[in-house]
TrEMBL record:
GO molecular function: ATP hydrolysis activity
Coiled-coil region list: 229-259
Keyword Coiled coil (UniProt): yes
Protein name: Rad50/SbcC-type AAA domain-containing protein
InterPro entries in UniProt: P-loop_NTPase (IPR027417), Rad50/SbcC_AAA (IPR038729)
GO BP, one annotated term: double-strand break repair
Keyword Secreted attributed: no
Amino acid sequence: MKLQEIVINNFMPYKGEQIVQFPQHETQNVMLLYGDNMRGKTSFLNSIRWGFYGLAVGRHLRTIPRVNLVNIEAASVDDWSMSILLKFTHEEKSYELRRKITKKSHVSVPSIDNDFEEVIGLKVDGEVIAGDKILNQINQVSPEEISRFFLFDGELLQEYENLLLDKNAQGEKIKLHIEQALGVPSLINGRADFAVLLQESRRIQTRDANNSSELKSLATRQSDLDVKEDTAKADLKSLKEQKNDVELLVDTIDEKLKKH
């Protein structure tokens, strides 16, 4: 997947519409975002994450409530709408993903997530994808389970380390996701598959060895039969020659008897 453009509207510190176009390179697809503290780096990563998955995380990897995602200045003038538009490519296809929240009509000032309505839309090569298929399409491009390692926030590195060292449920989940990102399960499964293949190959070798022994035995028997056949043919030829000699002798004796 390659990000092409993001359009941010009223997301956290980004008031109004902000458009960012990502650099494009045929082989390089890693982008670094740097700057001073409190300049919106984490919020920018969260805008991408929220656009894809409807989720933004803060310190201690806690989910940020929707009411805190809407830009404060916009909310102060009763503009509670917030949206993210992502344009990207994947496997030679163009994607356009839009996610938006607005406060519900009967809500005066939102305070909980349910005070908002969320709308999501996706186009692939200009074709609108049905709502019940959007999540599957997103996870095919970038599974949510490993997204944190593609949208990695260096400022949270210590928190990741602490979670891993604490051996709690979330730490184990992160460890699992890291292993998935590195392909560890595939390596483990591959090792098991190779063990099965090795066992099968040894079984085939044993069978072939047995077959080879049987073939050698049959070849020896065939060779013996060939020798016996050659001997029998030679004996038959000799007997035929002896028969001819005897017949010739009989004819000679008959001729002599007739003369007498």
